[in-house]
Write a structure and sequence with these properties.
homodimer; alpha/beta; Rossmann fold; DNA-binding; transcription regulation (chains A, B); DNA-binding (chains A, B)
DNA sequence: CGCCACCTTCAGACTTCGTTAAGAATTGCC
DNA sequence: GGCAATTCTTAACGAAGTCTGAAGGTGGCG
């Protein structure tokens, strides 16, 4: 799950960033509205957490433009306690949920989970492919009826490769999924994870497309 | 993918040049605005990375003249942290994205990818010709329904020859596509790659135009 | 008929990817 | 708050794939 956090308060941002990172999300953090909008329009995220009071471009403006561009990305907004109008305006502008500062990190996590569940609900259901069954709700995976234990990174990779299968996922795309732009690991971690997946399933499940990336064949 | 980097700071330029080279781009690097503009107008690139503070001709000026000439080449500009006006002026002058120094190389890579994706998006779609179907998104190619494995260079060549077919691509043009002007291969590599393509498809797919270059016939 | 451009082939250099294993980092548990 | 277990990263090396440069062959064109 890749998530964009837009928050200009350094202390708060740091806190959220860490907390969500520990939850297993890949979190990218920006501190102004204009670059946030840029990223939202050009990269792929699963969710955005958006503070409304931002320099350079107001959060509301970001949200409005995002929706104008046709995106239905789940967005949770953060507002100050007394800014009731902002909240309403936020929902009007297309936010999916809001939270009033100061808030409890646990509540933020809960709401994100709920949001993701809801948005996944649009296209939920088990993913079944090549003997693998993957349950996005519980993150449980089985192979030919037997449960398989996957680590978080393995799960993320497999999930990405299987939804939908048949498409080549570039190395870049996968690296970004796992690491955002924090620090791209300058080693071969991707290959190592792929290797582990192949070992846990079948060695020909994931095909290498040399110089490009990996794919799971559509029909097998 | 051929890319022009215009950056006068040697250390930074070196860093970017290497990093992008390692990403598989063909990178040409110039250090002043006037030669940059010249190259941009006379050669073909897929993208330009343009520092705004340059000797001999300001980056903004380069950008403006480039746009005046009718080019819609994707351009990413680099600006100093506090030069807000420059940034705005840059976007006004037709930049597609910007990055504030100092920046993270990973983020630069991500933004370039996004830009290229966006610009490719303008004319995406499968390319179908003479039984060949080529998917620019995934770099997958098939011939008469069967997938064909192409190496990166083969793919680049085929893609160039097919978009659109019917035009003679000069040897010079193709060589530049593959190698930029860094190190022109002093051998017959082009012929070798063409040979491989003919072997993987049909030997009369690519016609030789003696003394000029190669072409794929328009209708077959 | 001879020159020149291009074709074909191939071996060695070079890159990229797979595989391991060990140590670092993180997490969970008491 | 410290220990144990899991997970992730790094690095080294080997395997496989790709590119290059060179040599010799073929065919068009004057």
């Amino acid at each position: 799950m890749r998530l964009l956090l837009i928050e200009d308060d350094i202390a708060l941002g740091e806190g959220i960033h860490q907390a969500l990172g520990r939850e297993g999300y890949t979190v990218d953090w920006l501190q102004d509205g204009s670059s946030a909008l840029h990223s939202l329009l050009s990269e792929t995220f699963d969710l955005a957490v958006l503070d409304l009071g931002l320099p350079r471009m107001d959060g509301l403006e970001v949200l409005r433009r995002l929706r104008d561009s046709g995106s239905n990305l789940p967005v949770l907004i953060l507002t100050a306690r007394d800014a009731t109008e902002d909240r309403i305006a936020g929902l009007d502008a297309g936010a999916d949920d809001y939270l009033i500062k100061p808030f409890d990190l646990a509540e933020l996590k809960a709401r994100l989970r709920a949001l993701l569940r809801r948005s996944a609900g649009r296209a939920h259901a088990l993913i079944e492919h090549a003997g693998i069954s993957l349950n996005p709700g519980t993150q449980q995976v089985s192979y030919q009826g037997e449960p398989v234990a996957l680590t978080p990174k393995e799960y993320q990779l497999l999930h990405e490769l299987l939804s939908p299968p048949g498409r080549v996922m570039t190395r870049d795309h996968l690296m970004q999924l796992l690491y955002g732009w924090n620090e791209e690991a300058e080693s071969n971690t991707l290959e190592v994870h792929i290797h582990h997946l192949r070992k846990k399933f079948s060695s020909d499940l994931i095909r290498t497309v040399r110089g490009v990336g990996y794919l799971v064949e559509e029909r097998r």
